Amino acid sequence: MQHQSLHYFSSYRKVKTSKDTDEDLDNEYFAAAHAMTCCYDLFCKVEKLIKIGCLLQQDKAADKGDLEEDEDDKVSHKKRLEGLSTHVCDCYKWNYQQLLQLAPGLRALINNKSKSKQLARIAQKMNGIISATQSDDSTRLKSQISHYAAPLPAKEPLSLPVNNGTSSRSHLGVNHPVLASFLCPITAVKEYHQDPAEMRKKLASGQILMSAANFPAYLWEGIPPGEKYDEDSMTDGPSTALGKDSHATQSCNMSLHDMTMVQPEHITYACIQAHFRISSKNKWAKVNGKFSYQEFYQNIINFLCECEDKDWVDGLLKWWNRKLFKTENGQEGVVDKASINDSSRSFSAPMDSLAKMRAQMSAHASAAKSSALPPLVLVLVIILILLLAILIILMSIPLHLTSIHLCLVDGLLLLRMAGTLLLPLDVLFLLASMSVLVQFHLNGLL
Which pTM value belongs to this model? Predict the structure, then answer.
């Protein structure tokens, strides 16, 4: 299973001399940390990922008999892994694999115990880059968010400005009449537009819970977002951030990451940054009140990677590829469907409106499969109808023309012996023979 290759920042690459310096090596790791944030795991903790990744590798090697370890060591690493579900372990395996692909120099440090301090220092620096990337990208979005949030920015800006000339963000989030409708759970969006003032109070007080399992309205299309939402078909329009009617983003990060196609993690990263930027929170964090960005991040990835309606997900990714790369399959020209739907990238959790979306996607996929009969079935149905028609015609032929029946039977028998038409002729031969016998019986000849 191969994900797109995201190597190093071109801006961090240096011409290597015969002896690599620590600075040269660190640049590789810094670039990998930035790519991990945007493309694989927004909340990655490098030292924890390396520890668990190594434990999982040891566990696998021990089970296969490739690693000899004493009983105490075996019990120790089993105990450290026993609290992790299979899906969580698979997720760690995937991210660990990508980390080593992005920063192959880590392998030598991981495999050399004498380099443990150097490894710890690099992991700490990489965590710092991950944290800085989260907040830096949000800061860059600050000057553009009013343009993205306005339904028709070229014709009419937001009635209440997002940037009011101060560093305070207290006027944003549920305190902003437009942004509050964006953050409102999609299941309550119709009620919001019926009485915005009252609904803003309920959102602010927590009477209407804004949780990571209830996707916000800005993920749906419409002016305002969620305008076309239908609870009986919840996936008809999750596209303001996930697909159509979105604003294209600049291509600088694509070049920096050697990004060649859009994957679920890229879309999810944009959704998280958009949510934080329109909220009233001043500093980047994993949690905003009762809303968990980490859960929200994982829920979106899970939904896209585990969605049973593969055509819907495929269409979404193609839309984004066309928007960013001018071709639906990205620069590589091939969509890696195996990696998109690989369970090792996600783990399931109880969900609210998201559970309904999953169920509707499953039903839609099943209906799509059952609505189209296989061509062979259609052919057999047509043949059966024709054969029944022939039988009715043969049964209506008078007795004095029974010789026609016999000639037909003889002809079909010769064709069958010649090996032509096989199954259809077998059935037709049987029907013709039956019609002769019935005619004889009806006329007292049997």
Answer: 0.67
CA distance 290 to 211: 7
In angstroms, the CA 12 to CA 292 distance is 33
CA dihedral sign, ordered 72, 77, 83, 85: negative
Q: Can you tell me the distance from the alpha carbon of 400 to that of 219, in angstroms, rounded to the nearest whole number?
A: 77
**Token code pair at residue 46:** 């490098």
- The dihedral through the CA atoms of 336, 337, 340, 343 has a sign that is negative
Q: CA-CA distance, 331 to 222, in Å (whole number)?
A: 30
Helix 46-64 × helix 71-81 angle, to 10°: 130
Instruction: Indicate the DSSP class of residue 70.
Output: -
CA–CA gap between residue 32 and residue 235 (Å, rounded): 34
The dihedral built from the CA positions of residue 416, 422, 426 and 432, taken in this order, carries a sign that is negative
Tell me the pLDDT tens digit for each residue of 379-415. 667 777 876 776 666 556 554 545 555 555 555 555 5
Q: What are the tens digits of pLDDT across the range 413-430?
A: 555 555 544 455 455 555
How far, in Å, CA of 428 to CA of 421, rounded? 10
